Amino acid sequence: MELRFLGRADYAPIYEAMQAFTAARTADTPDELWVCEHPPVFTQGLAGREDHLLAPGDIPVVKTNRGGQVTYHGLGQVVVYPLIDLQRAGYFVKEYVYRIEEAVIRTLAHFGVTGHRVAHAPGIYVRLDDPTSHALLPQRPQKKVPGEPAADPDFTGLGKIAALGIKVSRHCTYHGVALNVAMDLQPFWRINPCGYAGLQTVDLSTIEVAVSWDEAAQVLSQQLQNTLTP
């Protein structure tokens, strides 16, 4: 898997490059990880609803073909785009999402933070009152009882620290994951993040973990290389 650090880059050209790479790749094309940081931008997924854009103001909104609703990218956030041939890797989309989330959880653990999954809400979350706590969340994914309807996600006491949005075309992935390191978080209040009104977004800085963008990018990319390897 080839690792490419792209530095600070506008969103739209990277989006177009991911599409072109995926359209042109063959069965022999090596997988790649693209690591970058975007200037402020809101991105809207395929199912995105306009009413989740509360007050975008001067921040541009780009409509994309990934799954999910609206999210924000900005300086101080590590964004990684895995370009993976899932057929060659030998696992399906659900496991691919699990592996990305696992890489984020391991990255947070490297910095002394415990990341959590929430049922029916992709991404990784931390406890606001104790980001180092290993106690199991009542909101964690659990085995579904037959006949019971899926409950709405419960974000009580949690902040979202990493967002996930993917696209799969001809078994090949693009888009990816964003980890909040040290950001201006105010733009998240201009949207319903990932389609959830009132969902609080945090970064490592908010929970008093001092780490540079470069270090967080190195650790996350290494963990993604480890977890996405077949």
Model description:
The chain has 230 residues and is α+β, with helices and mostly antiparallel strands. The chain has a single domain (2-112, 161-228), classed as BirA Bifunctional Protein, domain 2. It has 4 helices and 10 strands, in the order E-H-E-E-E-E-E-H-H-E-E-E-E-H. It has a 7-stranded mixed β-sheet. Strands 4-3-5 form a 3-stranded mixed β-sheet, with no helix packed on it. Strand 7 (116-118) and strand 8 form a beta hairpin. The longest helix is centred in the middle third of the chain and has 18 residues, at 93-110. The radius of gyration is 17 Å and the shape is globular.
Characterize this entry briefly.
By secondary structure, the chain is an alpha+beta fold. It has helices spanning 11-24, 86-89, 93-110, 213-228; strands at 2-8, 32-37, 41-44, 61-63, 70-73, 77-83, 116-118, 121-127, 158-169, 172-180.
Topology:
Elements: E1 2-8, H1 11-24, E2 32-37, E3 41-44, E4 61-63, E5 70-73, E6 77-83, H2 86-89, H3 93-110, E7 116-118, E8 121-127, E9 158-169, E10 172-180, H4 213-228
Parallel strand pairs: 1-2, 3-4
Antiparallel strand pairs: 2-6, 3-5, 6-10, 7-8, 8-9, 9-10
Helix pairs in contact: 3-4
